[in-house]
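Before going further, it is useful to explain how the protein records used in this thesis are read. An example of such a record is reproduced below.

***
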Amino acid sequence: CVTFDGLGEQVFADDRQQMQGQHPFDLPEYQGANVLVVNANFGCGSSREHAPQAIAKWGIQAIIGESFAEIFFGNCVAIGIPCVIAEPEAVKAFQEALKTNPQATVTVDLEALKASCGDLTIDVQMNAGSRQSFVTGLWDSCGQLIANVDKIRETAAKLPYLNWAN
């Protein structure tokens, strides 16, 4: 598709069809969830931006997992979805806590590197560069360019090889 409009409705379409309404994204108890908890190498084979865009359009705002495919991770960070890593046992415990109480409040704290679900709190990790980008709010490079357009024009005006008059 040319735009990302409507991708949220199609998130995990093949899996959801195969599971005939039993996929977590189709179950009523998980509707409105905004944190996705996944297993190892999540996003493998999803090198295009469409996979994270579909997840974001569905309403997911953070992903907790054992590990992530590198390109998928980078695409998530680029659109503002933090992906944090936890030990497999911690991810399993988190998933079990959500099965027991699907309406539990889930938080992902990038400053403290903790994720919580009800009474359960686990340690999470994120590479320092990506984490710092989220903590400082500087993950959005396009937003930074727009917010600093006057400074950019000022710097560009001093460069001898750019002519802003045209």
Notes: The longest strand covers residues 62-65.
